[in-house]
Amino acid sequence: MGRAIPRSRLGVFRRSWIAAEIALVGLLIGSTGVLGAVRDRWDTLSEPPAARGARIYQMQCFGCHGGESGGAITDRPPKHNARGHTWHHADCELAAMIGRGIAPDMPAYGGRLDAEEIRAVITHIRTMWTAEQRTQQEDLTRARC
């Protein structure tokens, strides 16, 4: 018969094996980008709404709707700046348009952006309006939402 491994050496072997498994799992998680995605999501959630909205707007909206300057009230798709007409809509209407889309040109972003992200985009859009437009839009939001 073979010799039995002393209990003290068996415990060291088990601990070493467990440590190796933990290291392997950590390596696999790290190589799949899960940790980076979690870190990016944390960074996103800790951003102020206007900064988060600006980042999302730049990635999702800017290509069609443009930035702070240019355009006219009759542009299609509309500009969201002070020269456009976005400020004529209440927050709840803007959130619905972003979430559901507007056929046939604007896709629905409800599946891509959560409610907080949509609110952040609206917060950013407001920064492109004049003080008077913001006041009028806030009154409209209070009346309609």
Polypeptide structure, described:
The chain is an all-alpha fold. The protein folds into 2 domains: 1-46; 48-144, Cytochrome Bc1 Complex, Chain D, domain 2. Helix content is 62%, strand content 0%.
Put simply, the count of helices is 7
Number of strands: 0
**Annotated CATH homologous superfamily of the largest domain:** Cytochrome c-like domain
Determine the CATH topology of the largest domain. Cytochrome Bc1 Complex, Chain D, domain 2
Classify the beta-strand content into a percent band. under 5%
Assign the CATH architecture of the largest domain.
Orthogonal Bundle
The CATH C-level name of the largest domain is Mainly Alpha
- Our Rg estimate from Cα atoms comes to 26 Å
Report the order of strands and helices: HHHHHHH
| Average pLDDT over all residues | 83
**How many domains is the backbone divided into?**
2
Stretches with pLDDT under 50, minimum 5 residues: none
Structural class: mainly alpha
Helix content percent band: 55-70%
Query: Distance between the terminal alpha carbons, to the nearest Å?
Result: 82 Å
What is the global morphology? elongated
Largest sheet: none
Task: Identify the quaternary structure here.
Answer: single chain
